[in-house]
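Record type: ASSEMBLY
Status: queued
Input:
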Amino acid sequence: MPGEDQKRFEDYLELERYIEALQEGRVAHPPSDLTPTQARIYRAATLFRSASPGAATPRPEFVEELFTRLLALDQDDAATPRPEFVEELQARLLALDQEANDEDTLKMPRVKKAEEPAVVPLQVELETPTRAEQERPGEHMVAAQPAEIEAATREEREQSSEQEGVVPPVPVRKNTPRRASFFSRRSLLTGSAVAAASLVVGTGIGAMAERSATTPPASASHPATTPAPTGISPYSPSNPQMPLVPAGAGMWHYVGTLDEIRGNVRPFSTETIVGYVTISDGDEGEQKDEIIAMSAACTHMGCLVQWQESDHQFHCPCHDGVFTEYGKPSQSGKLKYLAPLPRMQTMKGDNGEVYVLVPKSPKSAT
Amino acid sequence: VKTLRGAYQQTHLAMAQQSDGTSPAKEQGYQGHGSQDVQELQTFYQENLGLIYRYIYSKVGNREEAEDLTSQTFIKAVRSIDRERSPQSMQKWLFQIARTTVADHWRAYYRLSVSSLDELLDAGWEGPTEEEPVVHRAEPDERVKRILKALPDHYREVLTCRFLLNLSIKDTAQRMGLTEANVKVLQFRALKRAADLEDTAMETTGS
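Status: finished
Output:
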């Protein structure tokens, strides 16, 4: 009998500890050795906690952030254009570009087909470190994922990996593949609706951005004139300077000469991306003379923004998003909380040629 | 520059037309560039976020996990959303996802001790459910109110103090003229009774 009483006393204490944790808003889990009756008691406590004033009201920031993520996800999934569509769009853009060239009688260099290396020596150097990864991108993903999952899930972090063996086989095996893909995508999206939203143009990019999240740093050797691109982690809005295209997934695309670009906002397009390039005058906190290349995909829904000379800003035709000439969200736009247009790395040649690191086309990658 | 701007606008139109030509559901989503699509998603979100969040909160009891699991639920939902569903069946389905998401969460947490997991599942922690999910017509705080009403006075009072007023065990004891040890026993029993009441309520109103 005394033993029984003692046991009961501990149950009361245990429950009190749980209630205290609930009151303080801490993450608390009922003990795992509960009897069914006890489990129901803890369940009732949790239910009652949710009736505490304000407790079960979602934070506005959370509501907003999750919606942004969902939008991006929805776009990413539903709006990834078919490859044929991308090709056709590309063809149209090329044609239009050339029309424009003819009319403007600008000496704009012809946009080269993506299969032809834009600049031969560079291309060769860039290819080398990434070849292995091109051959088997799938394996990289798979290999990298367990680590990601562990980093991403709290409950798994709490348990060391050798405990995998103890796991009940049925539920866990059923779970693992789904979680894996979920979390690999999530790591890309966490706090970064932007990356996905801006990837709408171009099928290859999504895959690459995802791969980039799992690819170990490629130690590419680059011409001495350029800083070695190190962008390996996924694009993050908290660091808008992080390039959209990581070194291993890109190829250098010629966009014009310094003289042609200076004082202009110059559009360019490749098989995989549409963007603009300009040179900073040193305003808006940008470094003077910095070459700025950005994606033209609006960070809201991925429509292509258009440059308006009259007010010197980019305008999105879909929902009136407005960006400054350097791709920062403009105060004059109707949309709040826009992320800046993602940037791409640029590089200067010896004779003032400007190149932008654009995603490789899916074709040239195979 | 002017010409190029024109060019981009045309491209844009071309994009819209392109997706007009072939129009399975996915293309239509793209064509809308959102507007209609986004609105749909927004409506769906606004109508359900609070519901799902409160449901999940009533299962885990803390913000951190509630946010995490709510996010997971909606992400799963959006990825496999079937826009042809009626709002009602969409909601039912969303609750189903929320339920399995919570179940997965517990499973991951408790998977260390298999036997206790079975017990938990037997005990009615949201287990892996293939059967029809119970749709909670009433929101958690409604259910709590109903339970409180049905409880004997001293049970109602101790639970009100601890959960609705968020009083400490000490303050609760003072207020009720009991010792802290008494309060611990009382709240244990009150919750046990509450669980009984909730179960009977579920049997009668659950579908």
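Annotation: Chain A touches chain B through 97 residues (CB under 8 Å).
Annotation: The first strand of chain A starts at residue 250 and ends at 257.
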